Amino acid sequence: MQPSLFSQTPEDLAVLLEGLGEPSYRATQILEWLWQKRSASIEEMSNLPARLRDHLKENFTLRSLTPARSQGSLDSTRKFLFRLHDGRYVECVLIPASPALYGERSDRRTLCVSSQVGCAFGCKFCASGLDGFTRDLTADEIAGQVLLAEELSGEKVNNIVFMGMGEPLANLSQLLKALELITAPWGLGIGARRLTVSTSGLVPQIRKLADHPQQIRLAISLHGASDEVRDRIMPINRKWPVSELFKALRYWTERKKQTITLEYILIDDVNADLAQATLLAQRAKSVQAKVNLIPYNTVEGLPWKRPDEPRCRAFRDALVKSGIPATLRLEKGHDIDAACGQLRLKEERAERKDVT
User: Fold this and answer.
1) What is the DSSP secondary structure assignment for residue 170, as one 8-state letter?
2) Which residues sit opposite 72 in a β-bridge?
3) Contacts with 74 (C-beta within 8 Å, 6 or more apart), sequence order
């Protein structure tokens, strides 16, 4: 497949234009059509000469994602399913702020984006890896989710979390290029401090990302404060146990100014007891982290369930009493299969059933 024009940086375009004998300012014009005017076709780029438009049409595609389905939630959360050029699907979720409950800015609109089709890491509670890993997303496919979500919702995204399908740090090269597309003034122009990369705990890549110059934020999909619990639900912990993970997090805090977030999905009879809360508080304190508690979103085909609300609140209160900043998001899209990967699974399995 031809590369997407949306994957081109000013430096890439400069090389291309020089080879074609075109003036360098054409790069600015092309990027303006792509990222500011959101052009739907190369033919629309009317201030480019016809010969250049023809060359671009012959050698590049424009967008590599198309809308497939969307779902709206009672709490205004929206989930989008996008079809990729190879017939695979990827999804993202647009989450509104809840200032009355969480102290968020009322204008915050967070988009949870995906970095892979499927996932190879096999977390036992997650829908993303149920059909295994298919492939990495390219940088333009990652950034393209933001473009399409804004167009479909009519809202400007101003906060991005890489917490959708896949493990972002397992696709580090394309992730870093996507960060450039998203943060560059010629691109989406979203500040690095408004981007959060979530990982299940790839220790070497955490260290590499810590050395990256942009002041992006880091979230850890922890979901268990002890090796015993984490081993049960997160196979990655057998390679990089909790002690190794927190060494890498201390390395991160030495190099970045932003507070680490420990993401913790509360699963009944697995990790929601007060003994885990006590240990989680100790872990968080060791790296000055905050904790985001998320009651489990039920996934069809998996046995896990969410604790009742009083138990969720008790877990949160135990952290707060220990001096740990903690939020509890009781409802964000539970009625629209908001757990990452569910909508994609339903679509791809339905298509396979139609074929057979």
Assistant:
1) G
2) 78
3) 335
Residue-wise pLDDT for 105-152, tens only, equals 567 899 999 999 999 998 888 877 677 899 999 999 999 999 999 999
Domains of the chain: 5-59 (1.10.150.530), 65-355 (3.20.20.70)
β pairing state of 109-112 and 89-96: antiparallel
**pLDDT band at residue 73, thresholds of 50, 70 and 90?**
low
List active site positions: 91, 340
Q: What are phi and psi of 79, to 5 degrees?
A: -115, 135
Separation between Cα atoms, residue 223 and residue 230, nearest integer Å: 7
Residue 289, CA distances (Å) to 6, 258, 306 in order: 36, 9, 24
The reported pLDDT for the residue numbered 350 is 53
What distances in angstroms separate CA 178 from CA 143, 144, 155, 172, 174, one per listed residue?
6, 9, 21, 10, 6
Cα 75 to Cα 8: distance, rounded to the nearest angstrom = 37
Q: Is the pLDDT of residue 338 over 70?
A: no
Number of Cβ within 10 Å of residue 294's Cβ equals: 18
Q: Which of 287, 289, 295 is nearest to 333 (CA)?
A: 295
Tokens 């079809």, residue?
83
Alpha carbons 136 and 166: distance in angstroms, whole number = 8
Sign of the C-alpha dihedral computed for residues 239, 242, 243 and 246 taken in this order: positive
